[in-house]
Fold:
Amino acid sequence: MYGNAYVGDMPNAVPEVMCEDPEKLAEFEAKIERGEKIEPHDWMPREYRRQLIRMIEQHAHSEIIGALPEGTWITRAPGFKRKLALLAKVQDEVGHAQLLYNAAETLGKSREAMLNDLISGKSKYSNVFNYPAPTWADSAVIAWLIDAGAIINQVTNSKGSYGPYCRALERICQEESFHLKYGYENAVTLATGTKKQRQMLQDALNRWWTPVMHFFGPPDKISVHTEKLMKWKIKLASNDEMRQQFLNMYVPKIWELGLTIPDPALRKNPETNTWEYTEPDWAEFMRVINGDGPCNKERLAVRNMAHEKGKWVRAALMKPQARHVAPLS
Ligand code: BYC
Structure:
C-alpha cells in the first residue's frame, strides 16, 4: 500500500507515485537497488521527496526541541565538569538540527517554512521531548537511553538512499556516541551512589520507559510509512526491528546497574530470540505526537520565544553588508 499521497480527491483516486513517468521511476528504483545514492539534482518521485522532507524535517525539529529538556539542567548540573559536558551536548544537538535543516533544504522546502510549521504545530517532532525532566537523573536517562535509541535509528538510516541525509547522519552519529558515553557515566554515578541517588535514577527510568518504547514509532502492523520508506531505502529497518535492537543492547545494561524495568512481562523468548513486552500505551503516544502531551505547549512556547528574540539577528545576517568581510587594517 502506498501511504497517503493521492492525486485527486475522488474515491477512485490513484496513488501519486503511479502518475510518475514509469521509465524514470524504474531507473530511480534500480539505482536505489544497486545501493547508489540519490543526490539533490537527480530525478526523484514527488512522493520520495515529500517523505524525505517530512522525515528529515521532523528529525531536525526533534534536535532543537530535544535541546530543551536537558537544557534546563545546564544551570543546575552538579559540578563544573558536568555543566561543561552538558553545555557541549546541548550545543551539539542544536548543531544537528542545523545539519538536518540543510539536508531538508536540498529538497526544496525553505528553512523559514520548516520553522513556521514547527511553531504552528503543523510539523511533528519526537514524542520523547514532550515529557518533563524534573531531576538530574532524568537528564542522565535522556542522554543515555534516548541517545542510544537515536544511534540505533541513525546508524541504520545512514546507509540509506538519500546522499545529503546519510552524510548528515554519519556526522551526527559520531557526536551522539559521545553523548551516550556521557549519559551512561552519569547513570553509573547515580546507580553506584547513595540510596537516594539510586532511587532518583530508578524513578527517572520509570518515567522514561514508556516514552523510550514509543520513540521507535508505532508497531509495524499499524505504521503508515514504513513499507514505502523501506522500499526506497529511506528507512533501513522497521520500527519493531529497531525497538528489538534497542532492547537487545540496553536491557542487559540497565539490569547490570541494578535497576528494575517497569514492565513485568519483559523477557527474551529463547525460542524466537525476540523480546516480549507489554505494549506501551499507544493512545498516549498518539495524544503526545498530536500536541497533547505533558509539555507540548511549553516546548513550542519556548521555541516561539527563541524564534522571536532571534529575529533581529537573522535580519542583520541577511543584510548584504553583513556578508562582507571587513578588510584587515
Ligand atoms: N515521535 O508510519 P510511522 C535525538 C509519527 S532526536 C513523533 O511509523 P515513520 C535527540 C510519524 O511521523 C532524534 N512522531 O512513521 C535530540 C507519522 O506521522 P505523520 C529523533 C512519531 O516515519 C536531542 C506517524 O507517527 N529521531 O536523538 O515510518 C537530545 C506514523 O508513524 C514518532 C528521528 O527523528 C515519534 N517517536 O517512522 C537528545 C529519526 N514515531 O508524519 C536526543 C528520524 C512515529 O504521518 N525518523 N511518529 O503525521 C524516523 O526514523 C522515523 O520517522 C520514525 C517513524 C522511526 C520516528
